[in-house]
Amino acid sequence: MRICVVGDELATGVGDARALGWTGRVVARTSFGRPAMMFTLAIPGETSTQLSARWEAETAARFGPEHEVENRLVVALGRHDVAAGLSVARSRLNLANILDVAEANRTPAFVVGPPPGTPDQGDRIAELSDAFADVASRRRVPYVDTYSPLASHEQWLADLAQNGTTYPGQAGYGLMAWLVLHTGWHSWLGLPQDD
């Protein structure tokens, strides 16, 4: 199995002293039947428009032939659409295009939404997360809402405050990993649920 994670710097765990981020923690808690390859393909500050333009070429270089390998795509959406002033309609279309191409290529997709950032962007990120969830739902693609559960989560907020940035630390990435692991990750991979 080859899993490509495309997204911004949050997909790589920026701010995590252990350098695992949520992706490393998720893989560490996943018991694959055979060795799996996971590739994190991140670009700092990337919007969904930029992601939509690059993801296919980058994953194609890492995916194997369909008859030999199970290829999987994780779309890790960040918050940069808000900072860039992209309309929600544009963001929706960008994700829809990614998921439609993945489906046409017979590559199962899994979407992780943007987590909370600065309080002044809260309403916009919440709206963006809801829009992404709707796009994924219409295509029957698993979607992990990281915004709603973390927006007022004491540990998440303490982590951001301690770092003094919009990047979480170990605790915050651990919370994101927990949400991914408990929102259909194992069933999407066709694996038994981890206890």
Automatic annotation (TrEMBL):
SUPFAM superfamilies on file: SGNH hydrolase (SSF52266)
Gene3D superfamilies listed in its UniProt record: SGNH hydrolase
Xref: Pfam families: Lipase_GDSL_2
SGNH hydrolase-type esterase domain segment(s): 5-174
Protein name as it appears in the record: Lysophospholipase
